[in-house]
Amino acid sequence: MKLTAKMIVICIMVISLSAVSLYGYVWEGFEKENLWSVTVMKGNAVNDIKIVKSQQTEGKQSLEVDLGKTGSKYKGFLSREGSMDLSGIKEIQFDIYIEKPLQVSVGLSTGEDWGWYETKAFRLKEGWNKNIKMNLDKKEWKSAATGWELNDQPKNLKDTKKIAIVFMQGREGKVYIDNVRFTGKNIANPAYTMPYEPLDTTKLVDEYSLLEELSVAGWAKEKSPGVKKEGKLYSLQYSKVDNVGKAAYKVQMDMDWTDYSKLVMSIKNDSKQYCCISMGIQSGNGWKWYESPQYLLKPGKSTEVEVLLTASNFKTEDTDWKYVTNLFEKNNIKGIHFLIYGVYGSTSTGNILIESFKLMKGKPFSPQPPEEEEEE
Length: 376
Description:
376 residues, mainly beta, Jelly Rolls, 5% helix
């Protein structure tokens, strides 16, 4: 039987679609900026995460997870937050390397109520565990609606707010994640669309002197007892903060951050309770408010916080407080705020020490804000 040119083209398309259905595409290979974080929650067994040039199954890098002991009481969570439309995705797959026996699951938060859906726990063997797969179009997930039985399918995927990887029933050690693949509609990964600049300590500019202007934000006096000087370091007090009510301290002055791509800080939670920090930045003549993602601060520990000033993971009133926008008008910064929150389900009182405050010079990147539509 002779094949016409049209039939050949159709056959090629069918084969190509089958290949995509089987293998998907790499959505996250950890080759660019790290937009994942240690999930803000009490008792999180994940100590730290970072991108490294080892233990990879795709590209040249992977995500290294420093994991503490997990069990019935403590689990480890890391997550990627924002606003994603996963309604066109059928499968998620990834590869994971472990040094010691461990179990892992994947969770999604979706919809306005941040509904939580979680897969079964996958038992991993030491070494590489490739092609860990979960189906988004099957009732293989647990949720509150099913009494946490594995008989649900994620809903509101068009409004996915968080992808989380959960670690449980394992000993402390290093874990490596790579080659996160999606099967289905092509979804852009903001980590691959923004300028990529690895942290370069030779380009860091010490701006600790800016903190001499620290003061309590007037609208947060109740939860912000005050600023203290401990030796050469500034201590920010917080009182009865939770995941909504926060302490806030401001540095109000005109600043030009055009040439800066990262804000790098070392912050110690000098108390016995969990808290987290984010940065509020006001820019432009309208003093528009942008807020960064939150970073978990464990009791008695120092944490290096890296705020990506070129990433589209800030939230504003215009984005309905979703982490999906850039920080615009960096050349016209009006003020910065240290925002101290508690974690969900508890209140915290204590203080944090700002051990260092530096800005990294980077490639010029000044995206223009979207034009406002004129009212008719």
